[in-house]
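README, section 4: Worked example with a bound small molecule

Sections 1 through 3 covered apo chains. Here we extend the same pipeline to holo records, where the ligand is supplied as SMILES alongside the sequence. The molecule in this example is magnesium ion. Nothing else about the input changes; the structure line simply encodes the ligand pose together with the chain.
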Amino acid sequence: MLVEREKIILVGVILPNKTEEAFWNSMNELHSLAKTANGEVADELIQKLERVNQASFIGSGKLEELAALVEMHEADVVIFNSELSATQVRNISAAVEARIIDRTQLILDIFAMRAKSKEGKLQVAYAQYKYLLPRLSGQGASLSKLGGGIGSRGPGESKLEMDKRHIREKMHDIKAQLTHVEQHRKRIIERRNTQSVFRFGLIGYTNAGKSTIFNRLTNETTLQEDKLFATLDPTTRKIRFSGGFQALLTDTVGFIQDLPTTLIAAFRSTLEETANVDVLIHVVDASNPDYLQHETTVVSLLEELEMNHLPTLVIYNKMDQAPASFVPDQPEHLLISALDSVAPEMIKQRMIELIEKNWMFFTMELSEEKGKELAQIKQQAWVTKLEYIESKQSYYIEGYKPRKESSND
Ligand SMILES: Nc1nc2c(ncn2[C@@H]2O[C@H](COP(=O)(O)OP(=O)(O)OP(=O)(O)O)[C@@H](O)[C@H]2O)c(=O)[nH]1
Ligand SMILES: [Mg+2]
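The generated complex, written as structure tokens:
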């Protein structure tokens, strides 16, 4: 579907509680987010304030300037780099002839656009209603302005105008459907957990290169794009190592700073596939000037999601574009460029080391008639030595296998 690109004006306020550098980085990110939502940024309006204006977020003089800017560019949408209250949206809308949305709405919108699975769609719809609910009162005028385009995907116009009771009913309904889908997914995960397979989970800030790495390692083509949140639904595939050994790798949704709280639940469920992996692979875009902030965001979200106990390998990616001055700040790391031909082997080498570290060393002998069993062992355990013993007509095997015996062994 081709949507005409909407013209956007970005608005940001520099406050004393953040450094100017952090502010500009977040403005750049807002720019990428707007582009990801198919928008075309026509201009930016910045104001330095001691605190935000309760009534209109920016000062009244600045508000007039914004109205003039919108008129000059014939802009369709104004996106604020913070969360706005219902009152602020109402007051700004009264003065400016464009749709007024905030960063949270923009992110929700991108999520709505990107969600493919039934569960993903339900999660995003739920988050959108949750965001909307406290903002409904007295917003009639500005809500009726919504009618498609950035910031209004998902629950359509008529639904947006439902009263609170209807929205609550709708949320209740979505919750029930979600419970159903979640149970189904949990059963799949449980089944997978009873198989003794080593599992890796890719996580990291949006656009770090997770899907590129995933594709290179699994020879798959999940959507990889220079857009934020290209991947929304988790995908799990096999990685094959030499000798026939297989492990599983899961690609996940990217993280972002100041993630709308309404979306944390959605995140939690999409990340559940990675909640019980053996090792997390945290991908960091080393070429991004804000990579340290990205790392911090990911680490604190992992804490919030109670996943910070998992062993983690940090991959600093896009080293081809990283500045010469780049210094990794995590001890357990790998420096690569996912586009480099040697990258998959470098990562696999490290993965093997991690498997050896987290699994249990074993030795065994297997009589030569048990060819089928041998093939199975080679697939499920990481075999490091395999010798035929002539005198015993059997194989001597050394390798690594799960610490816990699986139930179907
Ligand atoms: N120069 C360079 N670009 C890369 C490298 N790895 C990935 N990219 C590019 O970075 C962009 C983002 O890559 P993705 O793999 O989609 O990133 P992601 O982490 O999956 O992003 P989300 O799914 O949005 O969270 C794409 O345009 C890739 O081609 C690299 O090593 N060097
Ligand atoms: Mg991706």
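What to look for in the output: The CA atoms of residues 31 and 292 lie 20 Å apart. The two ends are 49 Å apart (CA to CA).

Section 5 describes how to batch many such records.
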